[in-house]
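Teaching note: in complex prediction, the entire set of molecules is handled at once rather than each chain in isolation. The prompt given to students was simply: 'Predict the structure of this complex.' The entities are:
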Amino acid sequence: MPVVSVTPAAAELIRSLRGRHGPLMFHQSGGCCDGSAPMCFPAGEFRTGSSDVLLASLAVDGVTEPVEFWMSKSQWELWKHTTLTVDVVPGRGSGFSLEAPDGVRFLIRSHLAP
Amino acid sequence: MTRYDAPTHWQSRYDHYIGGEYVKPHGGAYFENPTPVTGQTFTEVARGTAPDVEKALDAAHGAADAWGRTSVAERALILNRIADRMQENLESLAVAESWENGKPVRETLAADIPLAIDHFRYFAGAIRAQEGSLGELDDDTVAYHFHEPLGVVGQIIPWNFPILMATWKLAPALAAGNAVVLKPAEQTPASIHYWLSLVADLLPPGVLNIVNGFGVEAGKPLASSARVAKVAFTGETTTGRLIMQYASENIKPVTLELGGKSPNIFFDDVSAASDDFLDKALEGFTMFALNQGEVCTCPSRALIQQGHYSDFLAAAVSRTEQIVQGHPLDTDTMIGAQASNDQLEKILSYLDIGRKEGAKVLTGGSRADLGGDLSGGYYVEPTIFEGDNSMRIFQEEIFGPVVSVTSFADLDDAVKIANDTLYGLGAGVWSRDMNTAYRAGRAIQAGRVWTNCYHAYPAHAAFGGYKQSGIGRENHKMMLEHYQQTKNLLVSYSTKKLGFF
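The expected output is the structure of the full assembly:
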């Protein structure tokens, strides 16, 4: 199982956001409020650095370029025994993530890594 | 028992509050605001975008200079009057806040609103008492240090305590003489407007501006604006980093409160007697369910010493099972609804991974269906997991009524587990031996260590994070300096030249 996968509903949302906002990226958040949720930004909007790890370059049907999925290294140390599935649920908002105004929210579902 | 009626004082629509009046959104769009109590929409709110933020910044810049020069006595008086209005309307504010957020009205009546009232009074007093300093460098030379306001500041408010968290940021900023552009959380944008309806006439136009909307559409233009002198944010780490990144582009300071995974540590001697103290400690354990766990300092890891582990945990499970879950507007209700559907879904995803990782569910573990109108609301059973600190439910802020329990051998072991986290916002230490409590409290890497208490948030006790929990301290007069510049006048009283030229 890949480290990060995407449900069909999330893929559909990614396609839609890609059409409106251009190339995309994810950074997995931690902490309070809307933490522990994946944040979706225009690619390059969030500056990753040496404290981050690129977990996946997601291939999404209908999206030309791969969608990078990042997490802070320190957080990944605590998550690395699990695999992640990006899903989408009805929701109200979250940080500066692009999908919030659509009334939906990306959500991580987790599984134990084999 | 009292059951309040659903509040009816809402307007059907809230625009932006800019320059002392309500202004329609530039883009003409609104978004629905549901109550988590039933999931039903009760008002709609302006969907702000960059032009709305610019308009609010114009108003704030127009007002900042005069407000900054207003005497501290007058600013303090206005803050005290805001507090008085809130006191006179405490009940209706509490009911509004409960309807907005889903939290039980017993909490808003006894905590959220009284704390907010006191916070305005505290900063009214603090600004009156604040003094600059002078240093007499030599007989002819004096360094004067004045506190000056930053000017216009941006504040992005979380949804877990909509009025109280706005107050934590507004009271010091206004006391220090700043004009504010505030963005409420899109999950809870309405109750701050009800609050505003009670106090708006007290503030000069433009001193407080509220732009509603989503983070990406309204929060980002505010956080990235070169026209704000500082950004204050409470939320999560990715957005916190993004705000720091925007601030770095403008060389502006930020204060950030980004949550935690707070340990609540119970030493063996807690169970040495069956008395009031043990009863208080058990309540302290159960505090994980306060505000449905939607607190940055939720004591979501309970560390129980091995000697009394079984007995204490059994009593804690029993105490947790006595939590009354119900209609948030019923004064008997102890735990209400999660603030939004996505929050509910996230909590359920953690209940799932907790089980997959092998943690044992001691009580709860599911969504709660309270029936009737409440079936559409977002309710979760108070849940206790037993496991170990490497599990994700011990390492991530679930922001729900979920506590993960493990045991420890001795003081060093407790401190090791407590500090084995990315965060450092809050912690609790419970012991009858104050030497043990002191050693533990000093060794824990967290900004606030509640000692033989938990979840108290009085003004004049500094609150803020170590490690990835953020930057800055709120709730204390030191917060004034987060909203001030230091002006040094270096004055020579000598009439003699230096002799260099």
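Point out the following to students. Chain A has one domain: 4-112. The first strand of chain A starts at residue 4 and ends at 6.
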